[in-house]
Design a protein that fits this description.
This protein is mostly helical and 212 residues long. The protein has 8 helices and no strands.
Amino acid sequence: MGEIMSRMLHGLRYSLYVVFHPFKGFWELKNEKRGSLGAGLTIFFVCMFSNILRGQFTGYLFNKYYPENADAFLIIIQSATMYFLWCIANWCLTTLMNGEGTGKEILTAVGYCLLPLIFANILVMLLSNTFSLEESTFLLYIDGFAYLWTGFLIFSATAVIHQFSASKTVLVIVLTVAVMVILVFIGLLCISLVQQFLAFVQSVYSELAYRL
C-alpha cells in the first residue's frame, strides 16, 4: 500500500514536469515508466472537482450558471464522458493506425494534460470575486490560454506516446473528435430506442391490465 501511494505521489509531482516539458516528459512517461495511472486519474478527478467548485463559487458577474442551478452530478457526467470517450476513441483509432501507445498510457497522459485547466479554474474562481465587469477580458485570456496549453499537451502526448509524425498526430486528433461525435450519436440513438421500447412495453402492459 505504501509503495502504491509513494508511486502515485511521485506521479503527481512528475505531472508538473510534464506540463512544462511535454515532449521529454511524455517520452519518459512511456519509455522510463515515470508517472502513474493513479496520478493521471487523480488529476482528472481534481479537474472535475474544480469544475464543480467553479460553477458554485465563481463571481456572480462572470458565472454562466446560477450557483443553485450548477448541477454537480451533471458536471461529473459531462466531465467523465468527455475524458473516457476521448481515451476510448483515441485508443481504437491508434490501434488501427499502428500507434504504439497502450490504453493505460493514454489514460495517464490525458489526465496529465488536464492540469492547466485546474490552474485556470482556481485562478478564475478567485479573481472573479474581485474583478469588475470591465476586467472580464482578462479572465477570458486565462481560459483561452489554459485550453490552448491543454490542446498542445494533448498533441504532444499523442505524438510521443504513439510515435506519430506531426501531420499524422493532427489527423488522429481530428478523427478522434469525429469518432467521439459518432459514439455520442449512437449512444443517444440507443437511449431513444430503449425509451421507445419501454414505452411500448408499458402501453401493452396497461392495455392487458385494462382488458383483464
